[in-house]
Design goal:
Elements lengths: L10 E5 L3 H12 L4 E5 L2 H10 L4 E5 L7 H10 L5 E6 L4 H9 L4 E4 L4 H32 L9 H13 L6 E4 L6 H10 L8 E5 L5 H9 E2 L11 E2 L1 H4 L4 E5 L6 H13 L1 E2 L8 E2 L3 E6 L3 H6 L5 H7 L2 E4 L10 H16 L5 E2 L1 H9 L5 H15 L4 E2 L1 H8 L14 H30 L4 H8 L3 H10 L12
Parallel strand pairs: 1-2, 1-3, 3-4, 4-5, 6-13, 6-14, 7-10, 10-13, 15-16
Antiparallel strand pairs: 8-9, 11-12
Length: 476
């Protein structure tokens, strides 16, 4: 039997045509801080269920316009995961068994006492929340233990794996540093999965997606009436992450005010929900991540120095893709197999020239960009082998953020042209030069001759992109 322990308030709907039953349930359950709504017909009940987030329904099996069993079937058919306790004055074993088969969590025979009602409600809520938590944990564990997305054998990446292996069993705060798209969240999940907290929740907060006030409410939670729109108590992330791991992505985007409050929580393991005078305890491990230069932000007064030292206990830097070029073919084929499998496509691979172009491209968006490019190729390509022209046309689509779609002057037109050249053509031009040099073993004259250019022009392009001659190598 499940021990419900302290049950948090829930939204409950009572569907019954007997006013005495409805009023009695509302009175008893409101005293336990539950929010209770009443409907007297099946039609009203279904409308309320579809428009409100109820956790539990107390359902009479005999309604004026519907049969309770029919409502149970509709809940199941519509995929509504709500705990249901059926009530009836026509108590029988057959009715109970039928209701349970349709998804009811418990059965109350009228008349029932206040204690029976409270016990049934607490038991149903505890079971529902336990089931939801187990489902969430199972999904997280499946995702966390599937490390197939962390592909690579480059020495720099292997060093990161070793650092993760050493850091994971500890409870120390970790700071993951690296450019956008390098897979910081994947490594955070790997750390959690190999920690003593692996069976508890892994909570992700993207600090760049919330305003300061909203983020504070999300982190600390709030009590009813704390601000306009706070119609009920809400548990914050610090409370939900208790016992587990909290991943603060892009921590450099936190306001200085929120930084100060986060520091206090990290030092005391205590916090107060917004609008509350009651202090709560939390035991969570924090993994932070950023692509920004936090040291520079500290000097500029935009990031607290004491918080920086607090999160920088175990720093782990994830290398950008251009620093582990020898992993690019493995990643490209990994994503190709994955998306072909998902989309039912049969693309066999990349031509040698296409693969060399991928290897020599600088990948400003890192692994995320490579994944998106391969996904786009799988969707659009008709050929069995992807060639360098398809790669080149998909490497960096033109972007004109911040500019008018249609230029209004010749200066605007030139500006858009320069932007498109810089964002789209120049990275491909640089990869073209690298590929030619690789094929020629680093010999500039031979590379220029092979691609049909004069040596002086080829050298000028190399100088433009800051490239020097080098010996043939697939890694950088």
């Amino acid at each position: 039997m499940i021990d419900p322990g302290p049950i948090k308030p829930a939204r409950i709907l009572v569907i019954d045509d007997e006013p005495a039953i409805c009023d009695g349930c509302r009175l008893v359950l409101s005293e336990k801080s539950h929010e209770v709504d009443i409907c007297s017909t099946g039609r009203e009940g279904m409308e309320a269920i579809r428009s409100n987030g109820y956790e539990l329904i107390l359902l009479d099996l005999k309604l004026p316009d519907a049969d309770g069993m029919d409502l149970l079937k509709r809940l199941s058919e519509e995929g509504l995961r709500i705990a249901v306790i059926v009530m009836t004055g026509y108590s029988s074993v057959q009715n109970a068994v039928a209701a349970m088969k349709l998804g009811a969590s418990d059965y109350l025979a009228k008349p029932f006492s206040d204690d029976q009602l409270v016990m049934a409600v607490e038991k149903a809520l505890a079971a529902k929340r336990l089931t939801e938590e187990n489902l969430a944990l199972r999904k997280q564990l499946y995702a966390m233990f599937d490390f197939s997305n962390i592909v690579g054998e480059n020495q720099k990446l292997l060093q990161v794996f070793e650092e993760v292996r050493r850091a994971a069993p500890t409870d120390s705060t970790i700071l993951l540093r690296g450019e956008s798209g390098t897979g910081k969240e994947l490594f955070a999940k790997a750390i959690h999965a190999h920690s003593r907290r692996a069976a508890r929740q892994f909570i992700v907060v993207d600090c760049s997606t919330f305003s300061s006030s909203l983020l504070e409410s999300e982190l600390f939670g709030h009590v009813k009436g704390a601000f306009t729109g706070a119609i009920q108590d809400k548990a914050g992330i610090f409370e939900v992450a208790d016992g587990g791991t909290l991943f603060l992505d892009e921590i450099g985007n936190l306001s200085v005010e929120v930084q100060a409050k986060l520091l206090r929580v990290m030092e005391t393991h205590e916090f107060k929900p917004v609008g509350s005078n009651r202090t709560q305890k939390t035991d969570m491990r924090i993994i932070a991540a950023t692509h920004r230069d936090l040291e520079a932000m500290v000097e500029q007064g935009r990031f607290r120095e004491d918080l920086f030292y607090r999160i920088n206990v175990l720093p782990i830097t994830i290398p950008p893709l251009r620093k582990r070029r020898d992993d690019i073919p493995k990643l490209a084929y990994h994503f190709l197999r994955r998306f072909c499998g998902e989309m039912g496509r049969r693309i066999q691979g990349f031509s040698d020239e296409a693969l060399q172009l991928l290897i020599n491209y600088d990948w400003p968006g890192n692994v995320r960009q490579l994944k998106n490019v391969v996904e786009r190729l799988v969707i659009m390509a008709d050929e069995k082998i992807l060639d360098r022209f398809q790669i080149a046309s998909n490497l960096h689509p033109p972007q004109t953020e911040g500019l008018e779609t249609i230029p209004r002057s010749s200066e605007d037109l030139k500006k858009i042209k320069r932007l498109i050249l810089r964002q789209s053509y120049e990275p491909i031009e640089k990869a073209f030069l690298r590929t030619a040099l690789e094929a020629a073993g680093g010999n500039i004259s031979r590379a220029a001759e092979k691609v049909g250019m004069q040596r002086s022009n080829f050298s000028a392009l190399m100088k433009k992109h800051g490239l020097g001659a080098r010996k043939k190598s697939s890694a950088a």
